[in-house]
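Please annotate this fold before class:
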Amino acid sequence: MRGLAGIVAIVVLAMLGAVLAARVFAPDMLPGSYEQARLAYLVGWMAMLCAAIFMFGQMPLGHAVRSLLVWAGIGLFLVAIYALRDDFADLYAEVRGELMPGAPTAVAIPEDDLNPGASAASVRRAADGHFWAEAQVNGARVRFLVDTGASTVALTHSDARRAGLDPDTLRYTTPVMTAGGQSYGAPVRLERVSVGGVRLDDVDAIVIQSGDLPISLLGMSFLGRLSRYEATQESLILRR
């Protein structure tokens, strides 16, 4: 057994050495890049098989068989996980949506909507009946209340500062109506706003005077630039 393992090891190592030598000194002798990758893949598996045979050759037969079965089971488990990766991704998205209603999840795009740069995201309805979206504004995390009645994206002082703006240097000259009454805001332009995979650049927004807006609003200056958005009983779907 050990003699056979040693012979196999020598043969595989010699093949691997020949491939590496040809790759360095005579690359024209080798096939194309795809065939090279496949050849390297096969040689790698043969090297692993050789190492396994050599290792098991040092063990009692019963121990070797048990170890082989264990590793075969691990390999099959990993193959099954890889084959079902899309199903696990969908399950993770569902669980994440239930635990974090504002966290956007990816949405499959119909074939007739597969335009260059097309993207979609879904936001689950919260227990209070509203849609709360966890977004990225200039790379910073901001939690928005989705408000189709707001003409523009509105930021609180703290969220504006988090997004890299300096609220203290802005000019609050634009009159706005908030839930608490009339206030004033400072128009700004956001470099980028993303909800899940849906991203828009150069989004018009307004920063509301300190204390006059309790939560930032995702308004029509973002929603109106999407190809469409639709609300269902459970979720809000954004498409770009």
